[in-house]
């Protein structure tokens, strides 16, 4: 199992290219099931989750081809991929595939919309209700699908096709909104999605569906209207830049000091997070090429932040921010409102000497003058990169174990940081 070795203390200076967003790439790939035409996605990141989803889609009959590299392409440049579901050969998504990736459950919507049926394993790992799989099923039921839970599978039928409906989400759900958008695109009649998620990745999916022939109004607002069409066609679409990767590297620079251009980043996708980075004492400026983050020798300032759905502070940057303020000149408070169990990184950050105590859904972080390197273990995707941020500023050596979590969401992390002066290397199993 690979590990990452980091020797802390180096400032970061240079350019980090921002990859296509994982959280946009996955629903875009799933949308290929809606058409027999070819969907071409540019700027697709090279990530374990993308490869895993490609395997899941192949099971349904999607041909997946990667364009060859062009002269002058860098190794961190996104790939261009063609997805063609000319024929759906299987409407079952089995447990052994879905259990490895929660987002793959979303195939339910396009399969039912196009084929009138689907049998999709419920994702493993946590009960319905803790993450809103139940809201996804509710959305499909509103669109006229009959759903039974049988032996751990959601079995859905809509023999006469899906029908337009009012879908009112009791709480904001990104997965539910993705599902409703895909289902409603091929439904008979008009659907209105109330309390829709406003995340940029929702807008990106809607933009792509419109290129495929869907009729969608209001994406990026709380109310989305979808008028169903009889068929969708192929299209070409570039995946938007990853706002979570942008925020992660911005916090790494704020932690270590230095001057880095986050190439291709778009500030409007994460303005609330960049405002918080500014509050910690870094300078953030938008340029024609992306977002520049700079911090000279000044100390890190404490902050008080609550996670919220977009445009609020993203839950997916909560762990990274916590790592940053472990060295603040004072006490910070971070309140998590989106997901439970989102503080698993606290125990690992404590191994660096960080002072963090939990009070319900709030973490109280007393800033320390210095952290010390330690062997640590990644517990999930976002938590794992918080350990990297802490390690970059810690005295001495840190070994991050279980880095397969990192590979799910961060493309070429050690290459990108290494190119900016970080002392970081991957040690392969047995290496």
In short:
This protein has 14 helices and 24 strands. It is of the alpha/beta class and 431 residues long.
What labels describe this entry?
single chain, alpha/beta, UDP-n-acetylglucosamine1-carboxyvinyl-transferase, Chain, four-stranded mixed beta sheet, 14 helices
Describe it.
The protein has 431 residues and is an alpha/beta fold. The chain folds into two domains: 3-19 and 242-427, Enolpyruvate transferase domain (UDP-n-acetylglucosamine1-carboxyvinyl-transferase, Chain); 22-232, Enolpyruvate transferase domain (UDP-n-acetylglucosamine1-carboxyvinyl-transferase, Chain, Alpha-beta prism). The chain is 30% helix and 26% strand. It has 14 helices and 24 strands. It has helices at residues 22-30, 48-60, 95-98, 108-115, 133-142, 174-185, 200-211, 243-256, 271-279, 318-325, 346-350, 381-393, 404-409, 413-418; strands at 3-7, 12-17, 38-44, 63-66, 79-84, 92-93, 117-121, 146-150, 153-157, 166-168, 190-194, 215-217, 224-227, 235-238, 258-263, 283-287, 290-295, 304-306, 331-335, 355-359, 362-366, 375-377, 397-401, 423-427. It has a four-stranded mixed sheet. It has a four-stranded mixed sheet with strand order 2-15-17-16, with helices on one face. Helix 6 (174-185) links the parallel strand 10 and strand 11 (190-194). It is globular. The chain starts with a strand and ends with a strand. Residues 126-130 have low confidence and may be disordered.
